[in-house]
Design a protein that fits this description.
Mean pLDDT: 76
Region (Disordered): 196-217
Number of helices: 6
Radius of gyration: 47 Å
Transmembrane segments: 12-35
Biased composition (Polar residues): 199-208
Keywords: Membrane, Transmembrane, Transmembrane helix
Pfam families: N_methyl (PF07963)
Number of strands: 10
Number of domains: 2
Helix content: 55-70%
Order of helices and strands: HEHEEEEEHEEEEHHH
Strand content: 5-15%
Length: 386
Amino acid sequence: MTARIDHRQRGFSLVELAVVLVVLGLVTLLLVRFLGTAAHEQREVASRSLLTRADDALLAYAMVNSRLPCPDSDGGGIEDCAAGQVGRLPYKTLGLPDANARRIRYGVLRRPASRREDADLTDKRDRYDPLQVIGETGTELPLNPATANGLDLCWALRNAGQLPLDTGYLHVTRAAASSQPEAHVAYALALPRGGGDFSSHQSGSTPAFDSPRRPQGPTYHDRVLAVGLDQLWTRMRCGDNLAAAGHAHFNAAASIALMHVAMKDYKKQLAISVKLAEANVANGAGAVLAGASATAGAAGGIADTIAEGLLTFGAVATYKVALASVATAAAVAVTITASVMTGYADSALTAAEQAYEDVDPRIDEAAALEPQVLEHAKTGDAAGLY
């Protein structure tokens, strides 16, 4: 028996091969797009992380050095205070280990003025003058020796917030209208998306940054982080520290000094009270004597009236005796009242003299406490924020 041999071969048809190729093409396309999206997202995450770390480094630098760093002018990572308001981030000055930070555009508000009105955030100088009591008056005076610290940076932020908008100094523009300035900021950071070139304001040298809220578009692709004046004020806790070290402590010193002066004035008033009490005692003694004299006079009048009555057999002088008796009783009452008032005056004199003596130790304590509290207030100012 002869076996039959099947010469037909099995394999992919053209249709099946075409389907496989289409599927492989779609998978490849999706994979390429996924990898591209993942790489883009990775770059975005890296950019956000870099800006966040730069922001944290700037805040830490400000807290430690009581000022913000100047921009870097040549990309070497070292601040250059002759560079103006805008340049590259001085990442080496900040202690950032990532050299990619040199790509960050950095701007800082530098608006110099007289010492009390100064708003140059890169200049560490003594600006804040707390209230000090000198003698019996209070005035705002710089401490001696003057100490520049975080309180003075807070004062510079306060000054900057009170100044009008000037496009010659660092500012951001409006989110919906990038050609219009919106407000000054303490500092701003920017990175171009995708590692390319900057667009819009970040590509120039003017002290302007786009708003962090500006939407992305075909002609704009920068990432901006801007820290406002009030935002940095809050992050550094300027309100709490300035109120405590700059006002509360010196207010306590002022209160002690004013209390010292008030207690001296009170002692003068007590001296007057002692004199008045002595005068009241003298008046009471005089009233007692006057009452005794009146009593004696009235008693003499009764004796005269009785003698007269004996001579006239009492017919005429009876009413006179009655009147003289009333006068005597009134004089006795006056004497008794004067004696009681004299007792009160004596008690008042004793109390006034005791109060006069008691106030001296309080004055001495206030005199000793006044310089101590003022010294503690100066120590608080010298300590700064942290």
